[in-house]
Design brief:
It contains 2 helices and no strands. It is an all-alpha fold. Helix 1 runs antiparallel to helix 2. The protein starts with 5 loop residues before the first helix and ends with a helix.
């Protein structure tokens, strides 16, 4: 397995932040997290296909 790139580390950090975000977070915060999540998913999908 190749060494982790900066992008891979960013994805893991973003996932960790999302996982640690309390369920009671404000809706606006959740919307922002969702937007960031889908941006990451789209980027990973583009890289891996």
């Amino acid at each position: 397995m190749p060494a982790m790139s900066d992008f891979d580390q960013h994805v893991l950090q973003a996932l960790a932040v999302a996982a640690l975000t309390p369920c009671g977070a404000a809706d606006a915060d959740q919307d922002q997290i969702d937007a960031q999540w889908w941006a990451i998913v789209a980027r990973v999908w583009g890289v891996t296909r």
